[in-house]
Amino acid sequence: MKCVRVLLPLLARDSYGDPLALGQAWGLRRTFSCAQTPNMCLSRGFRTSMRKPTSKPAPTKREEEAQPNPKSLVTFEDPFKRFDQDCRNKATFSHVLNVFCKKDVRRRGHVEFIYAALQKMPEFGVERDLRVYNALLDIFPKEVFVPQNSIQRMFNHYPRQQECGVQVLEQMERYGILPDAETKFLLLQIFGQKSHPFLKYRRMMYWFPKFKNINPYPVPYPLPCDPVDIAKLSLQRISADLDARITVYQMPSVEEKTRITHPYIVGIQSPDQQSLLQKHSPDRPVYVEGPFPLWLKKTCVYYYLLRAELLPPGEKEEEEDIDPERNFYFPMQLDLDLERDLGDDDSFDVNEVEEGPVFAMCMVGSEDQATLAQWIRGLQETNPILGHIPVVFRLESGPLKIQAETEMEETYEEEALQSQKLKQ
Amino acid sequence: MTSLAAARGEVGRLSGRMAVVRGFLRGLTGPALLGLHRRRSLHGAPRSLAYAKELFLGSIVKEEVFPYPEITNEELNEINQFVGPVEKFFNEDVDSKKIDHDAKIPPETLEGLKSLGLFGMQIPEEYGGLGLSNTMYARLGEIISLDGSIAVTLAAHQAIGLKGILIAGTDEQKAKYLPKLASGEHVAAFCLTEPGSGSDAASIQTRATATADGKHFLLNGSKVWISNGGLADIFTVFARTEVVEDGKTKDKITAFIVEKAFGGVASGKPEDKLGIRGSNTTEVHFENTKVPVENIIGELGGGFKVAMNILNSGRFSMGSACAGIIKKLIELTAEYACTRKQFNKRLSEFGLIQDKFALMTQRTYVMESMAYLTAGMMDRPGLPDCSVEAAMVKVFSSESAWLCISEALQILGGLGYMKDYPYERYLRDCRILLIFEGTNEILRMYIALTGMQHAGKLLTEKIKEMKKGNVGVAVGMFVKKLRDSLGRKVDFGLTGKEGVVHPSLEESAKKLEENTYYFGCLVESLLYRFGKTVVDEQLALKRVADILINLYAMTATISRASRSMRIGLRNHDHEILLTNMFCSEAYFKNNYLMAELSKHAPENLDDSIKKIATTVLDKRAYVCSHPLERNF
């Protein structure tokens, strides 16, 4: 350590005229953002110019071109509108950003531009792309807005710019994008340590990771496109039983000759449900009910249940007594006349909400009785008892209206998926 | 072979002597015997021994366990004359390594065992067996256990395989089957376990249906993991039968004696196992096997009780068997530790090595004491029910054996891990002890629940009064609590002038008494809290069982050491040392367990345990994120 301390002034003296060389000699790398690097000195000059308006930096060539008619109206053209729907993607979006950065070293109007870009992001399908957000932040001139003294720090230094920075982070938050080290570095470079955007960043970094895995049943992103796959996923989600078996009773297909479409039928049933159905008395009907909605993020799917009514209290089966000759090794119950003490009775019913048993679930491609009847026929193969139990269809027509909406929803989702694909 | 012939001759002589011994009552010395008779006449009813059960009520029935059971000199001579040839046979004619490697006991070895009479150790002499008492059986078990495969083969044959005929068979059945089984001409197997049924009687699928003439049953089904399945000629098979009860037909379990000669019996290929590889374990299939009605053991539909009795009676011998193994291992490892030098010091001089030897010695002493105390209790006249004690012996000794053998391997270092040496075989062989004859978990439930049932019956009234808010009972409880908290001296009369414990063990006896007293209080509070739903509190029951096992182990060692001290056996001071050490350890363990069992004890982590297990089992996987995982 000591020799290093001796070396340091020596080296410093050697490379006195060239501080960059010193940095390189010590392996210190300053990361400059790509768009900003060539203008670094210039923007530095800008900051000083803000403090001392008298000393003007030498105007660049392009500025000179812009100067001749300072008072004329500037025609404003939305750079994002140049691209029509088909070619709106990440590449074109980045292109617009690049064009903006290159157009003007001073980045005049960058706040407005960033606001506009934020708005257009979903259209370009880049609203979930961290790199694009970083590129957006990169548009801000660096070090200009960093407060230099305590007075600046005390008051809201460059409030419009800070507010804009916060908005960028806000939108990231809305789409669940976690900032990374580059974001942090950019914010520090643009606004400095004690600024609102950086505070926002820190809050995001505190809460985001904590909430990231809070959902014990995460919905995969992106959702699969195939409706059969979505149906499988949703059914597994509802049944929440690792033993449950998914059966695809029918794959979607179209017959060439007759033009008859066969909708898909996907069902799920667990062994427990199977044995429940086995025990069901053939005198009581079972019901096919539905459709019931299930939301997977923005997608809504519908499922149907095969269920029975709850037995009336009088007919409830008594819990079977355990046969005393059941266990070869130890008694399964004690012959005692003592109940559990109140202090240790942890079982309590909120309201004793009981529902009838559910025997199976399914999702189908077309919501009509014929398709559902086909599902029941398929179920019969594994549950022969269904042949003896009357099956009643209690289908609600209400959700059809919602269905129409969902179709819209689905087209939207498809769009999103398509753009996703394009992006990839 | 010469040694075999000699052994055979000796056995022949011995059989003659056995008749002389038969006249003596076994298991007790004169005065103790008188005492027993007196007590029996007082009670009048067929006595059932209840030392362990009484512990649940917080009392020590010292007559049951003091003095430590002894055998007569004649019996001792007799058994010693037995031990010699058997030991010689095992040392010279049994090649355990080869048995383990080939996964087969060679026919000559089996012949040797048969000629020594080891296939009929507990079969009465009138049927051609040796007619050994439980104590003597335990003694021979010590030697037989030196080869795990042989021990299991013999145990499957006589501890469970033919036990059904022995304890519940008719005279005709005994006369027909026992002689050939005793000589080893026929080998027996016990067929209970099925692919879908371990301890659950309801899931037994093998079915016996009566034929039209009512003289036969047709047996259909498969059994798995049957020891001796491929060797056996006689099977004790448990199957469902239809029984008419109160006008309703019900399915009940019935036990049958099935000869291989009946036809339709097939055994699968021998299973490849971790340990006891030489023992023959196979599947057994029955297909329309015609079993005559006379071959029902016990009565039709009474198979459940038969199975329970067989299983309960076979366990006590494991204590002495484990002791035999570890005594042998102590010799082998001590030899190694005293010769191997490291850093110019013998291994035996290192504290950590000495620690292991102390542990092995102590555990061996305890399991030996428990095993022979239990065997002695079982040998007493009447039909003593020692199933709880036997289960405790099994649990303690199997777990100690696993621990001790593991420590022995640790002493040996890398040597113990090598297949060229016998040590790793012992480790593999002894792993099964924790599993078969009722897993230790299941037996803990049995131990705790049997005691809870006993205590519950007697305490129900009192607890009900307390729950009703009876002032008298409540005040009584309060006074008792107050006295306890003011430093109660628990005295069950083990020590002192009229005491049965030697003064040098007074401390240990006091600890036993104190533990027992508070254990009684604890059982009462558990019954108060959980009532009959205590069945579902498995974590609490496990601790109850552990405390009881410790109490019984303390009793056994104190009783044995007292006797050794009193009659001046060699190295009795060593026994005192072991006993006092074990009792102090057990005392602290018990206190800790009892603190855990008391309500709202912070040491009790049951809730966390349950929560963790549920989370993992819901996902059926380890759920924690990998330590290298990043969230941003």
UniProtKB/TrEMBL annotation, chain A:
InterPro entries: ECIST_C, ECSIT, ECSIT_N, TPR-like_helical_dom_sf. Residues 270-396 form the ECSIT C-terminal domain. The keyword Zinc-finger does not apply. One of its GO terms (biological process) is innate immune response. The keyword RNA-binding does not apply. Residues 46-70 are annotated as: Disordered. One of its GO terms (cellular component) is mitochondrion. Keywords: Cytoplasm, Immunity, Innate immunity, Mitochondrion, Nucleus, Transit peptide. Transmembrane segments: none annotated. It is found in: Cytoplasm; Mitochondrion; Nucleus. Belongs to the ECSIT family. This is Evolutionarily conserved signaling intermediate in Toll pathway, mitochondrial. It comes from Geotrypetes seraphini (Gaboon caecilian). The gene is ECSIT.
UniProtKB/TrEMBL annotation, chain B:
Residues 503-621 form the ACAD9/ACADV-like C-terminal domain. It is a peripheral membrane protein. InterPro entries: ACAD9/ACADV-like_C (IPR049448), Acyl-CoA_DH_CS (IPR006089), Acyl-CoA_Oxase/DH_mid-dom (IPR006091), Acyl-CoA_Oxase/DH_mid-dom_sf (IPR046373), AcylCo_DH-like_C (IPR036250), AcylCo_DH/oxidase_C (IPR009075), AcylCoA_DH/ox_N (IPR013786), AcylCoA_DH/ox_N_sf (IPR037069). One of its GO terms (biological process) is fatty acid metabolic process. Its cofactor is FAD. Keywords: Acetylation, FAD, Flavoprotein, Membrane, Mitochondrion, Mitochondrion inner membrane, Oxidoreductase, Phosphoprotein, Transit peptide. GO terms for molecular function: acyl-CoA dehydrogenase activity; flavin adenine dinucleotide binding. Residues 301-448 form the Acyl-CoA dehydrogenase/oxidase C-terminal domain. Gene3D superfamilies: Acyl-CoA dehydrogenase/oxidase, N-terminal domain, Butyryl-CoA Dehydrogenase, subunit A, domain 2, Butyryl-CoA Dehydrogenase, subunit A, domain 3. Pfam families: ACAD9-ACADV_C (PF21343), Acyl-CoA_dh_1 (PF00441), Acyl-CoA_dh_M (PF02770), Acyl-CoA_dh_N (PF02771). Signal peptide: none annotated. Homodimer. Interacts with NDUFAF1 and ECSIT. Part of the mitochondrial complex I assembly/MCIA complex that comprises at least the core subunits TMEM126B, NDUFAF1, ECSIT and ACAD9 and complement subunits such as COA1 and TMEM186. Interacts with TMEM70 and TMEM242. This is Complex I assembly factor ACAD9, mitochondrial.
